[in-house]
C-alpha cells in the first residue's frame, strides 16, 4: 500500500500554487528576453531568486519542488525533438570530429581542473558539460542525471548563471576577435559554433558577421548539442554504478534519459509532422525555463555569493580552454 501511494502522481491541488508561480515567473522571463534581449534562462533564474520567499510558503513548496525536478526531467526528455541523427550525418566528418573533440576534452579537462582546485569532480562535470555542450540546457540535463548531493541545487544555479553570463560576453567579443585574427566567414563561423556556450548566442554572434558565418556556426553548434545524448547516457550509467555500489537497485538509465533517446530516434526515423516537432521543442523550452524559475525560488542569493571566486575562475578557464581548442583546430587546418 505504501509503495502504491508513493507512485501516485501528486494532485493538482497540491502542486498547483507553486507550479503556477513557476510558470508565471517563466512567462515574465520570456517577456523580458523577447523585448529587451538577454538569455531567458538567466532572467528566469534571477527572477526566481527574487521570489525566493515563495519557497518558504507551505502552499507553494510542493509545486515548486515538482517544477524543479519533474518538470525539469520532462523538459530534458522533450529536447529529443530538437536533435536528429541526420543533422549529424549532414555535417561531414570534420565538423563532427571537431565537436566530439572539443566536448570530450573540455569535460575531461574540467573534471581534472575541478579536482585539482579541491572541488567534487561532479561539479567539474556539471560546469564543463554546460560550457562544452549547450549552456543552461546542458546544465539542467546533467543536473537531472548526476547523483543527488546536498550542494547540487546551489551548484546548478551557479552554473546556469555563470554559463549564461560568459556566453553573452563571448557573443560580444568573439566576432571582433575573429576579425582581428583574420578569419574568413567560414572559419569565423566554425570558431563561434565550436566555442560559444548557448545556441542563441552562437546565432547572434555568427549572423553579426555574415549569413555564411551564421549558418556555419549554427550547424557546428548543433553538433555540440547532439553530443548531449551520449554525455547524458554516460552520466546516467555513472550514476547507476554509484547507486548500485551503495546497495540501491536503480534502473540502468533514468526514465527521462530513455525518453530523450527514444525521441531522438523517432525524430530521425519517423515522419513526424513539423508542427509536432515545433510543439515538442516549445514545450521543452517552457518546461526548462519554469524549472529554472523554480530552482531560483529554492536558492538564496547568499548561497551563490558564498560559493566564492574559485568556481568563477573554473568556468572562465573552461571558456578559454574550449575557445583555444577551436582556434588550434583552425590554425592546424583540421577543419
Description of the molecule:
The chain has helices at residues 2-7, 12-36, 40-50, 58-78, 85-90, 93-116, 121-132, 136-145, 152-180, 185-195, 199-209, 211-226, 228-245, 255-269, 274-297, 301-305, 310-331. It has one domain. Helix content is 79%, strand content 0%. α10 (185-195) packs antiparallel against α17. The protein has 17 helices and no strands. It is globular. The N and C termini lie far apart (60 Å). It has 335 residues and is an all-alpha fold.
Q: Quick recap of the structure?
A:
The chain has 335 residues and is an all-alpha fold. It has 17 helices and no strands. The chain has one domain.
Key words describing this protein structure:
335 residues; mainly alpha; 17 helices; globular; disordered N terminus
Number of structurally distinct domains: 1
Global geometry: globular
Strand content: under 5%
**Helix count, DSSP H or I runs of 4 or more residues:** 17
Termini separation comes to 60 Å
> Over the alpha carbons, how many angstroms does the gyration radius reach?
20 Å
Low-confidence stretches: 1-8
Number of strands: 0
Element string (H = helix, E = strand): HHHHHHHHHHHHHHHHH
Helical residue percent band: over 70%
Q: Structural class given helices, strands, pairing? A: mainly alpha
| Overall pLDDT | 83
Give the biggest beta sheet: none
